């Protein structure tokens, strides 16, 4: 009898344990690219969490191997506001910085040349910083209005607000009007020479998106637009452009843009070739590294020459040297067939512009403090 009771208890204990087949299994993750679709995180049955396309969290891998863009701080804002913020790329400040640095070079070099009081470059740096933020966003809006249909065919850009249908072209046009109004407000703080000079650059901003359809050199047109601040910054400080100094500075900036935007274009070269978009990335092909190396040398040589004409001191040339070393590092490390590597190289190019500015700023600081004269 005792043996029978013992066996009965053992059998009851075994039956109380959960079967391996009854244990929860991770759910299958599926994701649909179409607008409004939902994606689910790997979770256990009964506790599956559903994620919308803008809910913060890690990126999701598709069956094709591609991943959705990671979410950013923009996704904390209301749904009605987010498309406009994404349209301006405000979560990617590198574009604003690349537009701002030529302005900062010119403002600081002009202040050095005329030994302007500190408040002059400080005021103009602030105005041009705001202007760069606003006008870079306006440029993105114009670009996306032109490229709505092309962006749908490129993997990296198909989630942009216009391409995805989050907003219409008419809504984007209204938003652009607001951006340009703010930009005009900033421009009107400058002297009349600078107002007219600044307004004349808008045509370059407008036609840039068209260039990728008709020439392999859209990066050159972007360079002409993005480095206008090398002229405008000087006139804002001094009342007129010193063309002898500013033209080589401007030309150096254009070469610099050809370097960083060619690296950027390598991210999309496969899709671009399929849909008919042209770029220097496709034009340079396997010769990209030596060509960009030559353009980098041209960039720093022209900036150095502008500094020489402006009688800059040793700190300026130290900054140029650090900028040159940064460009060399970028070109040495970038894998032009790897998208993340190209993005890192693109961002890394911005540091070269930063070091040039730091050199000119140190030079100005020494002169204005009375330690040295030029």
UniProtKB/TrEMBL annotation:
Keywords: Isoprene biosynthesis, Membrane, Mitochondrion, Mitochondrion inner membrane, Transferase, Transmembrane, Transmembrane helix, Ubiquinone biosynthesis. It comes from the Eukaryota. One of its GO terms (biological process) is ubiquinone biosynthetic process. Residues 17-27 have a biased composition (Low complexity). Residues 17-69 are annotated as: Disordered. GO terms for cellular component: mitochondrial inner membrane. It is found in: Mitochondrion inner membrane. Belongs to the UbiA prenyltransferase family. HAMAP family: UbiA. This is 4-hydroxybenzoate polyprenyltransferase, mitochondrial.
């Amino acid at each position: 009898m005792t043996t029978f009771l013992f066996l009965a208890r053992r059998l009851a204990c075994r039956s109380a344990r959960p079967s391996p087949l009854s244990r929860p299994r991770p759910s299958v993750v599926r994701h649909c690219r179409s607008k409004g679709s939902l994606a689910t995180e790997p979770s256990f049955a009964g506790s599956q969490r559903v994620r919308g396309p803008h809910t913060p969290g890690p990126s999701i891998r598709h069956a094709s191997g591609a991943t959705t863009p990671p979410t950013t701080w923009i996704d904390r804002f209301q749904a009605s506001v987010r498309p406009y913020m994404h349209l301006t790329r405000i979560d990617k400040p590198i574009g604003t910085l690349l537009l701002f640095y030529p302005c900062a070079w010119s403002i600081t070099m002009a202040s050095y040349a005329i030994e302007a009081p500190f408040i002059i470059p400080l005021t103009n740096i602030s105005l041009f910083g705001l202007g760069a933020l606003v006008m870079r966003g306006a440029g993105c809006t114009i670009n996306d209005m032109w490229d709505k249909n092309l962006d749908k065919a490129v993997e990296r850009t198909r989630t942009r607000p216009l391409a995805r249908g989050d907003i219409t072209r008419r809504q984007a046009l209204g938003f652009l009007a607001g951006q340009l109004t703010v930009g005009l407000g900033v421009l009107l703080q400058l002297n009349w020479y600078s107002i007219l000079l600044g307004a004349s650059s808008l045509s370059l901003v407008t036609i840039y998106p068209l260039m990728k359809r008709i020439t392999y050199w859209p990066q050159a047109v972007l360079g002409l637009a993005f480095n206008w601040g090398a002229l405008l910054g000087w006139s804002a400080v001094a009342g007129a452009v010193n063309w002898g100094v500013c033209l080589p500075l401007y030309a150096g900036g254009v070469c610099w843009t050809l370097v960083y935007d060619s690296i950027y274009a390598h991210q999309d070269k496969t899709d671009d070739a399929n849909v008919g978009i042209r770029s220097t990335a496709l034009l340079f092909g396997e010769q990209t590294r030596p060509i960009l190396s030559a353009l980098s040398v041209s960039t720093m040589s022209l900036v150095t020459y502008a500094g020489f004409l402006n009688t800059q001191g040793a700190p300026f040339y130290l900054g140029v040297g650090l900028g040159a070393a940064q460009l060399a590092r970028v070109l040495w490390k970038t894998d032009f067939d790897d998208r993340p590597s190209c993005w890192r190289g693109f961002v890394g190019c911005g540091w070269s512009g930063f070091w040039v500015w730091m050199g000119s700023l140190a030079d100005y600081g020494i002169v204005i403090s009375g330690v040295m004269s030029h």
